[in-house]
Amino acid sequence: MTSCLPAKEQSLTGWGCTDATNAEVVRPERLDQISHLLQNAPPRSVISRGLGRAYGNPAQCEAGSVIDLSQFNHIQLDSENGTLLAGSGASLDAILQVIVPAGFFLPVTPGTRFVTVGGAIAADVHGKNHHREGSFANHVLEVRLLDGEGHEHLLTPNNPTTSAAFWATCGGMGLTGVIVEARFQLIPITTSLISVDTQRYGDLENLMAAMVEGDDHYRYSVAWVDSLHGPGRGVLTRGDHANLDQWKDQNSASDNPLFYDPKALGTAPSLLPGGLLNNWTVRAFNEAWFRKAPRSRQGELQAITPFFHPLDGVNNWNRIYGPSGFLQYQFVVPDSAGDLVSRCLGALRKIGAPSFLTVLKRFGEANQGPLSFPMPGWTLAADVPAAVPGLMETLDELDQLVADAGGRLYLAKDSRQSAAMFARSYPGLEAWKRERDQLDPRHVFESDLSRRLAI
Known about the structure:
Elements: E1 7-12, E2 21-26, H1 31-39, E3 46-49, E4 65-68, E5 75-78, E6 83-87, H2 92-99, E7 104-105, H3 117-122, H4 130-133, E8 140-146, E9 152-155, H5 163-169, E10 178-185, E11 187-188, E12 193-201, H6 204-213, E13 220-225, E14 234-241, H7 244-249, E15 266-267, H8 279-292, E16 296-303, H9 304-308, E17 314-315, E18 326-333, H10 339-350, E19 358-363, E20 377-385, H11 391-404, E21 408-409, H12 419-425, H13 429-439, H14 448-452
Parallel strand pairs: 2-4, 3-4, 15-17
Antiparallel strand pairs: 1-2, 5-6, 6-10, 7-11, 8-9, 8-10, 12-14, 12-16, 13-14, 13-19, 18-20, 18-21, 19-20
Helix pairs in contact: 5-13, 10-11
């Protein structure tokens, strides 16, 4: 490929540490360098990459070029209007360190703060508040994009001439162009603490009923589910940002209600035995985690990191799955197919697939993104070791049940669904392709994910 940028060949994987492929990684510092690269790129040869936190391979391009956008990391807070302008390579971690002390919070945050702005838009990430406030793209005001010809576009959701391209880009997994900058709305806060209600449930039925009942009462809601427990017991945590009166009542050790200091507690070792996570160890962990949670507690004040990003407390926690790596199976189905939550957990138990991180959330209304994942209903995410015998066959069977119910899988977590499953479960695919073809007529952008899904 002709490029004015030095390139370094690297082996890349997603966060699941599976399906490594080699690509030439380039790290531009200016827009014109990206534009030059795109103008001279052959078809199906380029994809962008942030911090590599997608679990599968959407930020890989075997034998092609991967654009590392880490140098596009500027952050500009507009306190008067409550908005943020940021480069696509700016991480949510870096943004939080700027906005929380200033009295603002992200409109949506996924389960890790080590995601870039570009990645959050490309995957249209969701959080614990989707049932109330939608996904990240719902709060984006503008996106600056370089298309497949290297031309710059300013995309906004409400402009009739750019709206379709905007929504194709949000959730489009980097396949409509290179996101270089975005402006999005923030939410005001008066403290950096979360007022949290916690409740334990001994079975899945009552847990899910409580989640439905709380849809209108809590801004944030998430449940941890014991995947190895037959009735599906779990711990439900719900809450909202604490106000100043609540902060004063807790006799805080800090004099600053907006104090924010996220810290990693340790680092997982680089080499762990492949059998460390098994049914026995996960069962023991799940028992301890369930018993550790209070039966019922209201109004506990928690810091941002333990509530929103608990796994960020251990650097490189993905290493605990050993050299074979892991995958996350995350689906969404309508409320009418809520029984698939239990059926999925049962199928994983049957083949002995241990998941110590199994998360259940509620989704609200979908947005206009044709490839955006959320839709009204239930979303279950289960992390499982990739080497479990029979796992792929079981997931193929679950795929069909999800598709039959009108559901779909999350592209940012996917590492194995078929092209047929994808086409069947994303009804907006053809509309997305039309917008993609307008922005990238030579089909310069491609990833290992898009190759597998034949898009």
